[in-house]
């Protein structure tokens, strides 16, 4: 049994950050009918969901917000009493990756993709888009190419033609931003800071990668411009 | 980076039905320290969760109940207005599997396993047990051996030593029950009926497979005996 899904209908995992916003606009530019999936998982920067909603609306896309609970999770991304790391990987590029930053949420992308699979199967979507990136990233194992190759094998084992696409996986943050600007991504609406306060902290890994990307792309961050 | 988890510590997916109860007792007999995971996903037979709780307690195991929402789901297992199918596969064994019964919940096992992965990673468990069975089953694609082979590949891609075990996958329902009886599985506590009324309907696929198993094993169903 081979289940044929519509290859031009897609579920897009949208966090509200700049990577997933870029993926959404990439998918739209490629002619995909996009249905977005947003997650509330106890993240301290829950305000990224407001950004994701605005981005989906601006892109004219339908979205679902899924709430999940991970009662065992001890990540500093969900536990507001912990300090967020700063520069965990940025200064350690030459070192082997032997530990993960405390912001790692075990199984997060696996859970997100499993819901995307359920949604895609139901609406007959043949593609799942995720903004995973294995260049300017925090070293999370669920952002690397091998993991997505394995996911596509798993999808085939289910007898579906569905595929996961990771168009940003080998791009630098600068490359992502340059591509996104050409696509008209509303970066002013995106939110990256892990702290989720009223303004970006500028210190967490996510803020640092973002700042590095805009600096290298030679333009100011439109989300910061909004604030000044 | 290779993350070493404790191979004798396990997360067991427990539904409250007879397959997962058998798996739990199998894992315990093999010396695993078992942590159970139960799901409320809008199933009309939510009373299976009461059974699962009782089984976990009887086995002396810790458990989490996870509530998830699948707003797109149109399965007859979650939509109480639909009629449940009866004998979908039982009478069609010689036919190729071209359609799934309406009880199929898209992505269900994938979602369950993704949460199990998150839980196992956090507590350092090296094994996930699931009572999937590809013999006396409704033809769901997420119950077949290829799918679990693909999952184990995916786990390796994450750099973990974690593995999924499916000890029942090639057993008949009769074989599962015979094995379970030898392990002391409290089948009187288990609940299989999809309808979830006060007594099993005896007509849904799940009731039929269960009845066939006990009949072939040559013993009465202890859950029915309790009712008489």
Which SSEs are present, and which pair or pack?
Two copies of one chain form a homodimer.
Chain A: E1 6-13, H1 18-29, E2 33-40, H2 48-58, E3 62-67, H3 108-123, E4 125-129, H4 145-157, E5 163-165, H5 173-183, H6 205-217, H7 222-227
Parallel strand pairs in A: 1-2, 1-4, 2-3, 4-5
Report on this structure.
Two copies of one chain form a homodimer. Chain A is α/β, with parallel strands linked by helices and 228 residues long. Chain A has one domain (6-227): Rossmann fold. The first copy, chain A, is 36% helix and 13% strand. Chain A contains seven helices and five strands. The first copy, chain A, has helices at residues 18-29, 48-58, 108-123, 145-157, 173-183, 205-217, 222-227, and strands spanning 6-13, 33-40, 62-67, 125-129, 163-165. Residues 91-97 of chain A have low confidence and may be disordered. Chain A binds chain B through residues 1, 64, 66-74, 96-98, 105-108, 110-111, 113-115, 117-119, 121-123, 141-142, 144, 146-147, 149-151, 153-154, 156-160, and chain B through 1, 64, 66-74, 96-98, 105-108, 110-111, 113-115, 117-119, 121-123, 141-142, 144, 146-147, 149-151, 153-154, 156-160.
Could you give the distance between the termini of chain A?
A: 57 Å
- For this structure, what is the CATH homologous superfamily of chain A? HUPs
Strand percent estimate of chain A: 5-15%
CATH fold-level topology of chain A: Rossmann fold
Shape of chain A: globular
Mean pLDDT of chain A: 92
What is the percent of helical residues of chain A? 25-40%
| Largest β sheet strand count, sense and barrel closure of chain A | 5 strands, parallel
Largest interface (CB within 8 Å) is between: A-B, 44 and 44 residues
Question: What is the strand tally of chain A?
Answer: 5
Return the string of H and E elements of chain A: EHEHEHEHEHHH
Total domains of chain A: 1
Structural class of chain A: alpha/beta
Strand order of the largest sheet of chain A: 3-2-1-4-5
SS element count, helices of chain A:
7
Report the CATH C-level class of chain A: Alpha Beta
Oligomer: homodimer
The CATH architecture of chain A can be named as: 3-Layer(aba) Sandwich
Low-confidence stretches of chain A: 91-97
The whole-angstrom Rg of chain A is 17 Å
């Amino acid at each position: 049994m081979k289940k044929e899904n519509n290859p031009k209908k897609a579920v897009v995992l949208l966090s509200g950050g700049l990577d997933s916003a870029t993926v959404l606009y990439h998918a739209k530019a490629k002619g995909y009918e996009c249905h977005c999936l947003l997650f509330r998982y106890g993240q301290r920067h829950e305000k990224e969901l407001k950004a994701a909603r605005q981005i989906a609306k601006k892109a004219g896309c339908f979205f679902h917000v899924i709430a999940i609970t991970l009662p065992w999770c001890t990540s500093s991304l969900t536990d507001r009493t912990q300090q967020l790391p700063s520069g965990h990987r940025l200064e350690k590029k030459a070192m082997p990756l032997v530990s993960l930053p405390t912001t790692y949420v075990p199984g997060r992308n696996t859970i997100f993709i499993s819901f995307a699979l359920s949604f895609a199967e139901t609406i007959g979507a043949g593609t799942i888009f995720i903004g995973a990136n294995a260049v300017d990233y925090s070293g999370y194992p669920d952002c690397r190419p091998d993991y997505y190759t394995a996911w596509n094998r798993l999808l085939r084992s289910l007898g579906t033609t569905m595929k996961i696409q990771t168009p940003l996986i080998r791009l630098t943050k600068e490359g992502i931003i340059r591509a996104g600007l050409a696509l008209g991504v509303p970066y002013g609406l995106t939110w990256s800071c892990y702290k989720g306060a009223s303004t970006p902290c500028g210190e967490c890994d996510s803020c640092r990668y973002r700042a590095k990307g805009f600096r290298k792309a030679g333009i100011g961050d439109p989300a910061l411009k909004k604030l000044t």
